[in-house]
Write a structure and sequence with these properties.
- It is a single chain.
- This protein is of the alpha/beta class and about 400 residues long.
- Helix content is about 30%, strand content about 25%.
- It has twelve helices and 20 strands.
- The chain has helices at about 5-10, 10-15, 20-30, 60-75, 85-90, 105-120, 120-125, 135-145, 155-165, 185-195, 310-315, 345-365; strands at about 45, 55-60, 95-100, 125-130, 150, 175-180, 200, 210-215, 220, 225-230, 245-250, 265, 270, 285, 295-300, 305, 320-330, 335-340, 370-375, 390.
- β15 (about 295-300) and β16 form a beta hairpin.
- α9 packs across α10.
- The protein is globular.
- The two termini are about 30 Å apart.
Length: about 400
Amino acid sequence: MGKRELMENFDDWVTDPHITLAALKSDWLSDLSRLGSCYRGKYLVVTTSGTSGEPAVLLHDRSSWAVANILVRVRERRTLVRAQEVRAFLRQGLRAAALIAGGGHFAGVVLTESARRRSPAIARRVRVFSVLRPLPELVAELNDFKPTALYGYPSAMLQLAAEQKAGRLRIRPILAISSGENLSENGRAEIESALGCRITERYLSSEVPALTSRCRHGSFHVNADWYIMEPVDADYRPVPAGVTSHTVLVTGLANRVQPLIRYDLGDRVRLAAEPCSCGSPFPVVSVEGRAGDLLSFRAPDGGAVTVLPLALGTVIEETAGVRRFQAIRTGPATLAVRLETWPGAALAEVRRAVDERLGGFFAAQGADTVAIEHEDTLPRPDPSGKFRQVWSA
């Protein structure tokens, strides 16, 4: 099953008859004051960022989040944070900055706000820093907060690494944890050099929040006792270990309110043919993931302004009437946009709304005027078969 089919049949997908998509949208998702609290007192509600092309509304029951928390604590207790980093946190204190897209019920925001609601002490030490904010404001807020831990998108951390090198950002984190996008080796080296700390990576998704755990050798192990992972080709036939898949199907065994059974996650993965030398019995997977390169647009003074793909994508995605989209940087002052609208939405009105929101976004980022060129083509996969949302041509 894919995200589109499931969202089209949302009310039949969920197993609690009191839950409807219409009620969620009107009573819950439109109210950001509810971030981190439980819908009907039982369910955490998150929305995906749509990086695989189709946003989704997801519910997790208490069993789902309990399993995810236990898996992280048990299987990554010695690998996520190292002993010397623990000692450094004890000396300097924990102040964690979540570098994620704010302004919506995205998983990272919901989980952070859920933790903040549980304890005033946590609320003082953990904060969301939205990557949708203009970069100078983000840098100023981080300088004031002085985080000792960062977690979020690696493309945001690359931006901060450049600001640190330029002397505008002045923070001394102990650890950085990246997720949501691929982290290249060059990106890893750049972040660690500029920020002066180790960066580690997690592979998870809003649909399956503890799909893998990372071992001491740096390998991702599928938590196969709670999640079934099936790498498949373009015709959904299994591919053998050692072969990169066209996509991957996942089944979650903990979430009973919104079951995911052979769900097309949209990632290309490769299962290792040999067991890991760490001794874990769980299969090792390497992930292509969803890489996001920074986009550069012309500034009024002739310089350049860098923009996060996820930040740009969120501006379009959150526009009323947009079902799917693609945005392609075609030049330093041009952006091509492909839109698919929801039934009943007027394309011309949606395009005008997108133009207004993007104009405000680019102005806030300090970019010169960017011409928005709407293409009549619907969003489509690239030649490799993978759906990309935002990239530079």
